[in-house]
Amino acid sequence: MKQTHYLTTTVQKGNRLEITLPSLPEGQTIEVILIVPSQSMDRQAFRQLPIEECRRILTEQAEAMIDYYQEDKECIDWLNFENGEIYDYQS
Q1: The predicted structure's pLDDT at residue 46
Q2: For residue 17, what are the contacts with CB-CB under 8 A and spacing of at least 6?
Q3: Predicted confidence (pLDDT) at residue 86 exceeds the cutoff of 80
Q4: Cα(first)–Cα(last) distance of the chain, in Å?
Q5: Taking 60 as the threshold, does the pLDDT of residue 91 lie above it?
Q6: Distance set, CA 75 to CA 20, 70, 80, 89 (Å)
Q7: Of the candidates 86, 90, 87, 65, the residue with the CA atom closest to the CA atom of residue 77
Q8: Which of 2, 8, 53, 87 could, after both became Cys, cross-link 49 (CB 3.0–4.6 A)?
Q9: Cβ-contact 7, 19 below 8 angstroms
Q10: Of 49, 3, 7, 10, which is closest to residue 24 (Cα–Cα)?
Q11: DSSP string covering 3-66, please?
Q12: Long-range contacts of the stretch 57-65 (C-beta < 8 A, 24+)
């Protein structure tokens, strides 16, 4: 099973990103997914948005990740582990 780490970072001079994960060994290959918000917003500002706006932003981010997760065999196998059905928990 894949480990997941949620991080935020800032684009540095030269359009570079720096990520430090001391729990991973040097030389390990990792997958990186970048979600670039249309506007920069810190977590506190996000929490103060109306719930409808939070849902809209989160829906946009989830839709951006659909193709990635649908093509990830390990993720699909995990979702289908119980009984072959994928559940939709939308309200």
Answers
A1: 84
A2: 9, 11
A3: no
A4: 28
A5: no
A6: 25, 8, 9, 17
A7: 86
A8: 53
A9: yes
A10: 3
A11: ---------BTTTB-----TTSPTT----------SS---HHHHHTS-HHHHHHHHHHHHHHHH
A12: 61/35, 64/35, 65/33, 65/35
Q: What angle do CA 24, 26, 29 make, to 5 degrees?
A: 75
24-33 pLDDT, tens digit per residue, is 889 989 888 8
Task: At 88, list the tokens.
Answer: 């939709």
Domain boundaries of the chain, sorted by first residue: 43-83
